[in-house]
Model the fold of this input.
Amino acid sequence: MGETCHRRETCRLCGGKGLARVLKLEPTPPANAFVAQSAKDTDQERFPLDVFLCEGCGHVQLLDVVDPRVLFENYVYVSGTSPVFVKHFEDYAKDVVSRFSPEPGGLAVDIGSNDGTLLGFFARAGLKVLGVDPAKDIAKKATEAGTETLNAFFTPDLARKIAHERGPAAVVTANNVFAHIDDLTGVAQGVRTLLAHDGVFIFEVSYLLDVFEKTLFDTIYHEHLAYHSVKPLVRFLKANGLEMIEAVRVDSHGGSLRAMAQLKGGPRPVGESVAEAIAAEEKAGLDKAETFQGFSEKIDGLKSDLSGLLRDLKAEGKTIAGFGAPAKATTLMHHFAIGPEAIDFIIDDSPLKQGLFTPGMHIPVLGSDAIAARNPDVLLILAWNFAPEIIEKNAAFRDAGGRFIIPLPQVEMI
Ligand SMILES: [Zn+2]
Done:
């Protein structure tokens, strides 16, 4: 496998060694590893995509860890490019400010700050802001655009340095990164070091309960090392001097958990949302291996539905294009074996992806003008969580007789 991927032997949250493999997905290259024309005829290395359940704390996770330098240094996802995410972060910042009323002039630090969208809203609310992001270009651009962003991985050392130079933080946020980092203990220790005594730590992660309830198996890819639920997190935070005070379900990424924490013994009471979430997780059997058996069978059923439909359409001579090239499309396309024989090209609105080829399958990514230029019969919506918006935006395609396929949570043709 080479040194770009290693398998860890212990639970990422509790350090336990009792780990049961509960789901085996098809190996893929890194989900965001789009390639240029010059590399499109070269096979990309694929890494195992197996999901494990910790028998000690119930944490669900990948153990095969792809080197983060491979995954994130040339990351192409920029949150500000999507109006849906900009609105999400605006609401997020409002929620934090209204719940916790941080003092104006207090410091807000965002771990994995991307282009600084969230911090921009904190700055408007009167906070001083600082981003931390390991992606070189994105950090540089964010700084140039006015949101100071350190190009680094967030570690206890960096947290000490920030606290020393700028004082403790009133707000620390980490969105869709708490699932991305192998050394979560290092992050938690860093947050503990950086937080003011009355500071709050808010992080958003894809929520395992949503992954189950809505069959969001395509959110499983190498960047997402952890599939969080509240019960194992409460125990983990406690072991690292932190205390979860709220656990709120939000819509982003098909269903996420917004967890809020303070230093252990901090000034805020623990909200009822925490116990309620744990009760719902226990009811769903999230900590039991047999629960995953049913999940796996459901995925198999979807695979057979979708490949049958695509096969029939091809047999009728229809041309099919994909719509959206999000990271999760890599998992969906590999696990369901959807390649260039089914899909001619993929439309994506991000100019950063246009002109490149999708990870592993090497399907060309084009701008939306290709719909009119190449006139496919069917659009398979790979960014299916935006299906209503995509269908509305492409009304002309539909009016001219075009059809859409939504692959999840069940296969649907519109
Ligand atoms: Zn564990």
User: Anything to note?
Assistant: DSSP finds 14 helices and 19 strands in the chain. The chain has a mean pLDDT of 93.
